[in-house]
Amino acid sequence: MKREINVTDYANQITSAIPHGVLVTTRNGDRVNCMTIGWGTIGTMWSMPMMMIYIREGRFTRQMLDASGEFTLNVPFGETKTKKITAYCGSRSGRNTDKVKDLGLTLVESDLVKAPGIAELPLTLECRVLYKQLLDKNAVPEDVRKSMYPEDVDSSNPMANRDYHFCYYGKILKAYIIE
Ligand SMILES: Cc1cc2nc3c(=O)[nH]c(=O)nc-3n(C[C@H](O)[C@H](O)[C@H](O)COP(=O)(O)O)c2cc1C
């Protein structure tokens, strides 16, 4: 069952959870992939509720997002322990393995997008990408550039590397908790 929520009532839960790791789930054809994010912004843009996520150029998720234009945000809520899931989805690439299968995640069909929700991280936002933009390297503060975008680290590295982030603006179409 999905219990629909007003996303602003849960903004605190969402913003508190993000730095500890939440998932972005994408689907392209039969392929479903989950990736951990630790940065994200929720708010209003163009008078629409918007979830902004920041995805480095080399991530498999970037390809999936560009192909499908949709994602779900999957936020831990309630009792389920999710550290193992977010650690796994934040250190393996969907290019090399099927993380959903490896972890035995429970997919729940979405109502308005093709990307499914994940029962183990039940607070769900269904989002459609309206806009994306690559961060302007020259406008990033120098200390941030040095620590977050080290030129000598290959883009396959799951942590900081030379790739800059694309910001994806995901219009929040629906928000609910999977129960
Ligand atoms: C806690 C945590 C937070 C992360 N946050 C981000 C993020 O906000 N953006 C990003 O591009 N990668 C982030 N990563 C790294 C990706 O999750 C990781 O590279 C992942 O393997 C990419 O999966 P994919 O290639 O299947 O898309 C994070 C990793 C962890 C463990």
What's the short version?
This protein has a single domain (2-178), classed as Pnp Oxidase, Chain A (Roll). The chain is 20% helix and 38% strand. It is built from five helices and ten strands.
Overall description:
The protein is globular, with a radius of gyration of 16 Å. The model has no long low-confidence stretch (mean pLDDT 97). A hairpin with an 8-residue loop joins β7 and β8. It has helices at 11-17, 60-68, 83-89, 99-103, 142-148; strands at 2-4, 22-28, 31-37, 40-45, 48-56, 70-75, 107-108, 117-118, 123-134, 165-178. The protein has five helices and ten strands, in the order βαββββαβααβββαβ. The strands form two sheets. Strands 1, 2, 3, 4, 5, 6, 9 and 10 form an eight-stranded antiparallel β-sheet that branches. The protein starts with a strand and ends with a strand. It has 179 residues and is an alpha+beta fold. It binds flavin mononucleotide. Flavin mononucleotide (FMN) is lined by residues 21, 33, 35-39, 54-56, 59-61, 90-95, 158.
